[in-house]
Structures are given as structure tokens and as C-alpha cells.
Amino acid sequence: MARVIASAAVSLDGFVADTGDAVGPLFDWYDNGPVEVFGTDPDRPFRVSQASADYINAIWPKVGAVVIGRRLFDLTNGWNGVPAVGDHVFVVTHERPTDWPFPDAPFTFVNGIEEAVVRAKAHARDRYVSVTAGNLTGQALAAGLVDEIAYNLVPVLFGSGVRFFGEYAGPQVLLEDPTVVQGDRVTHLHYHLR
């Protein structure tokens, strides 16, 4: 059965974007190295360090489905209908877009995090489901739907913005010791929940 990973690049003080939804230096490591890696889109290469490439290549090809919120969908325009990773995207929203120009793209719009994860796991089968950070991750964690956390720690302080776990107000969660991979301007911390 699919495992659910909450994943994002995050500042040292726990933010995945600033108050204006800009990621600033959080994504610099995606283009600061000699090794090309690809998600789903062959026209969207990333150039990272060898350590980051090894880490990414161990995870991204195993992602079958992604769960995102409507906010990220709107900010990225759904990556113009091509998932960043995985082969299907489940968008949590109360209002389906009516004018999105990619009606045949592999995107499904659902009403809640539980429904999104159930449908994403059914689609992914024995592959991973990736949940994007922010309020969605907090909701998934509170509902007991997260198995692993991929915390790509970037050495920057934002001071305020969008938190990795959103407004998480669930129970205390214990994690196993992380797998640590040191990239260039990023430290990949991969945790399994106890």
C-alpha cells in the first residue's frame, strides 16, 4: 500500500514561503549543481549537487500521486497540466476551477484531505503519495495520514510566512532519527513517523 510523505523545501525557522507566497532562496539548491534530475516534466530539469541528485532519484521516481491545495494549484497554474512529480495530482478544494485550460490533464479536484489521500493512495498503489507542505500537511498529520516527512532544510531565516505544518494543532508526534543527506545549500532530513 502507498506510503504518504509530507515534503517541501523549508527555512531553518520552519517556513515554506514568505508572507507573499514567494519561495526566495528556498529553491536555489534546485539549480546550483552539475547533476541534472527530472520530475515528471522532461522539459523542466533541475541541476543539483550529486548528493541531492542521489536523494531525489531515490524518491521522485517512486511517487505515484501528489496531493496539493488549491492555493498551490493557483500559484503554479497546476504546472500547466504537467505534474511536477508523480503521474496524477489530487487538488484539495471546495471550488473546482471552471476556466483552467487543461481539462485533460491528470488532475482530480476533491473536497477534503482525507478523500484526497484515499484516492491518491488508490491511484499510487504501492508507490508514494506526496503531500505538499502548509495547512494541508498539518491537516494530514492531524488526521494520522502521514507516514514520512521529507524536510529539505535550507540555511535561511524567513521570520514569517507559510509554515511547513501550517496551523497544526494535533497531538504530539514522535519521529524516528532522520536519514541525513548533505547537499549544496540544503540538508535533506527524511523522517519516518513512529
UniProtKB/TrEMBL annotation:
<dbReference type="GO" id="GO:0008703">
    <property type="term" value="F:5-amino-6-(5-phosphoribosylamino)uracil reductase activity"/>
</dbReference>
<dbReference type="Pfam" id="PF01872">
    <property type="entry name" value="RibD_C"/>
</dbReference>
<dbReference type="GO" id="GO:0009231">
    <property type="term" value="P:riboflavin biosynthetic process"/>
</dbReference>
<dbReference type="InterPro" id="IPR024072">
    <property type="entry name" value="DHFR-like_dom_sf"/>
</dbReference>
<dbReference type="InterPro" id="IPR002734">
    <property type="entry name" value="RibDG_C"/>
</dbReference>
<protein>
    <submittedName>
        <fullName>Dihydrofolate reductase</fullName>
    </submittedName>
</protein>
<feature type="domain" description="Bacterial bifunctional deaminase-reductase C-terminal">
    <location>
        <begin position="4"/>
        <end position="180"/>
    </location>
</feature>
